[in-house]
Design goal:
Elements: H1 2-16, H2 23-37, H3 43-53, E1 56-61, E2 64-67, H4 75-78, E3 93-98, E4 101-108, E5 111-118, H5 126-166, H6 181-226, H7 231-253, E6 264-267, H8 268-277, E7 286-290, E8 299-302, H9 304-321, E9 328-334, E10 338-344, H10 379-389, E11 393-399, E12 403-411
Parallel strand pairs: 7-9
Antiparallel strand pairs: 1-2, 1-5, 3-4, 4-5, 6-8, 9-10, 10-12, 11-12
Length: about 425
């Protein structure tokens, strides 16, 4: 469209714009030049005017035929130009253009004076300037167009990917190979897609696990009714189902509870000692060791109630899976970057391929799901939510038949401690 407009503009200039300056100005200028040459014409003055103004001059007076340039055509040759005919040659002064050269002819008694100079448009050729500008703009904008297309093309891919994700395709290909902001956006989108996919799978697995958990007591109730099992036994299974449903409802009702922190100065040592005392008869099975040498207090900014819930769940799990003759060990330590709290049991341990799922709701290490270990696999899911909320890290170290360590790390730069 731009090129088409330029062509129209250039054609407009050719049709409507004059090829030489205003006629009145030319006539006045030529009158002055002829007057300066004099009458009769003075060749020395004519030569000086020709050199100063870059104007070719020819005059013929009586028997004298003089020209400032050998190439200047004679009047007989000029009169054969088609532009010469019909241009008022009978007037005292008239002018016309031929091959981009303006000829001005002045009739004098017994002679003629001819002035010749280039059309002024040759000095500033508007059409050439416009063409040059168009070429320069093309050189600039054509590469810029392809550059922008290369830079912004991933946006189209990202838009299509978002559409596919919204339709349930979470394995869509994304341009994550780029090292710019769009590449970072693609990586974030891919990460989000992966998390949504995992979340949906977790919900599906949750339905499967809940169905399995409910099926077991319901099966016992069914067989109990057929075998006329005592009412008390059947009632135990009914109570188990009620407790399970209550736990599930409480877990999801408390989703908002796990999204907010009520921060206060919390002494980790005092918090753990009070928790151990709350286990009454089992507190003698818990050993607490403070490896933070010289520190009677380790104070951090935390939600004390939520940490009690998380630490309490970890202690309960450790007691549940440890043999009666083995004490659970809780130790507190510090490294250059972290305060570390370790909860160690001496149970059967966790298989390597099961570590990744222990923090999911209803995940249980006890594959038999016996009543011996109890619980519904919600304790560690709650622990993970609380630890993540505190911007802390929980690690699992375990060996089969040797036990498991749950290690919580609080970053020092987020917290502070005092010593007495």
């Amino acid at each position: 469209m731009i090129n088409f407009a330029v062509v129209l503009f250039l054609n407009y200039n050719k049709v409507f714009k004059p090829k030489y300056p205003n006629r009145r100005i030319l006539l006045k200028m030529e009158e002055y030049l002829v007057r300066d040459i004099g009458f009769p014409p003075d060749s020395s003055k004519a030569r000086k005017i020709s050199q100063d103004l870059n104007v070719d001059i020819r005059y013929r007076f009586q028997n004298v035929n003089w020209a400032s340039s050998e190439n200047f055509p004679v009047i007989e040759e000029i009169s054969n130009y088609k532009e010469y005919v019909g241009n008022g040659k009978d007037k005292k002064i008239f002018s016309f253009s031929h091959d981009d050269i303006i000829y001005s002819i002045t009739n004098i008694p017994d002679g003629i004076i001819i002035l010749s100079y280039y059309n002024p448009k040759e000095i500033f050729n508007f059409e050439k300037v416009i063409l040059t500008i168009v070429i320069l703009l093309s050189i600039i904008f054509i590469p810029l167009y392809f550059l922008l297309r290369w830079l912004l093309n991933p946006i189209k891919s990202l838009s299509l990917a978002v559409k596919q994700i919204s339709e349930g395709n979470y394995d869509v290909e994304l341009p994550v190979g780029r090292s710019d902001e769009l590449g970072d956006l693609a990586k974030s989108l891919k990460n989000m897609s992966s998390k949504v996919k995992d979340s949906i799978r977790a919900k599906e697995q949750l339905l499967i696990d809940v169905s399995h958990e409910l099926r077991t007591p319901l099966t016992r109730i069914k067989f109990g009714l057929e075998l006329e099992t005592p009412k008390e036994k059947i009632n135990e299974d009914v109570i188990e189902i009620e407790n399970m449903i209550s736990k599930i409802l409480d877990y999801y009702r408390n989703e908002y509870y796990f999204l907010q922190l009520n921060l206060s100065e919390t002494d980790l040592i005092v918090l753990i000692e009070n928790l151990i005392s709350s286990f009454d008869l089992q507190k003698n099975r818990i050993d607490f060791i403070n490896y933070a040498t010289g520190k009677n207090e380790i104070i951090i900014k935390a939600d004390e109630d939520k940490l009690k819930t998380a630490f309490g769940n970890l202690i309960s799990n450790a007691l549940k899976f440890s043999p009666e003759n083995k004490n659970v060990i809780i130790c507190i330590n510090e490294s250059e970057k972290y305060y570390e709290i370790t909860f160690k049991d001496f149970g059967e341990g966790i298989k390597e391929d099961e570590k990744y799922k222990i923090f999911e709701p209803f995940a249980r290490i006890d594959s038999s799901r016996s009543k011996k270990t109890g619980g519904y696999g919600l304790g560690l899911a709650i622990v993970k939510k609380i630890i993540d909320l505190h911007n802390a890290v929980i690690e699992v170290r375990s060996k089969e038949n040797e036990g498991t360590e749950m290690i919580i790390k609080f970053k020092k730069w987020n917290y502070y401690y005092d010593t007495n």
